[in-house]
Fold Putative N-acetyl-LL-diaminopimelate aminotransferase.
Amino acid sequence: MPQLSPHVRAVEPNQIREITQAAWASPGAIVLSIGEPGFPTPAHVLEAGQSVLARDETGYTPNAGIPALRAAFADYASARTGTRVDAGRVFVTAGAQQGLHLSMSMVLDAGDEILVPNPGYPTFEMTARLLHAEPVPYPLWPAHGFQPRIEDLEALITPRTRVLLLNSPSNPLGAVFDADLTRALVELAVRHDLWIISDECYEAFTYDVPHVSPLAFDDPGPGRGRVLVSQTLSKTYGLTGLRVGALIVPAGLQEQMSIINEAIVSCVASPSQYAALAALTGPQDYVRRAAEHYRQNRDAAVEVLADLGIPYLPADGAFYLWADLSHASGGDVRGWARGFLAEHNVAVAPGTAFGSIGEGWIRIALCGDRDRLVEGLARLPRR
Ligand SMILES: Cc1ncc(COP(=O)(O)O)c(C=O)c1O
């Protein structure tokens, strides 16, 4: 067999998958290692997808997505970011993951550097590597509440740095940026002429703090914007398998985006697009119910951790809790998580899945059943 491309061979296996697959193979395991909301999909969303098939509307759609869905995303994004986004700037993607790939494909050249959070979602690095770019992790220190610091970022910027990747609310941390920090991050990008890719998968879920998008501080003038925002229905509406998200780009990039996307996916599956349209334009009560469920799960989980004396980062957003297991993990939290699953039949994601600063930490997914969550966490080792 001929050899695989070296940069593909260099991509590391995903530690979240590793522990989750082991858990799925273990009968009765409590799986707290993945962020998959488990709510039933509302009937109006299912019907919208099914009716597309019944009408045999199975041809290509425009590369950028069906116009009504682009308009719905534009309205949604305008309301959520406080900035008027017109539909021409919205590009329908196969989930946020394709939004990341598409946005990085647009702005990164081979050897270019992209600043990615450590700890951060693992595909930020993987996607950059697949494009022959160089991910440069920027530290989110425990001592600073796992928030980015401008001086740490400044110190990492080189003539090859092209992109600053932001993710608030954060997976895995549940941390949320406030308006001052977000503005300072955009100003940093302006000073160094960087693009910002803002992964806003979890923007619908913040608890008692607002979600602030860097789009709110971007220059809206044609040819002057630098913020690309990636959104998804996977988390907001719990529609992970539908594969629909949107990339919002600065004015003027849309023509080029269409050309590039033709070579990546051409367009998103038509039943998924119509189901997404129904989700965005129909009743929103189940998003509110989901947010309340995650908040109550967070509060229940925090109570168990406090009882056990386990430190954690207070989660202001997303549906994860980041907890410090360094008293038990012996400097190898990946190995510890495997052992914890084998012994107690509970899977949590090892912090090292998200970067070196995650050593000693675990990520607990808060999106499932509350009783199972509490039962699983009660098996953690007391500090
Ligand atoms: C931060 C972050 N970005 C992107 C994704 C990918 O989401 P999607 O299912 O929309 O591709 C996830 C999924 O967990 C995520 O947590």
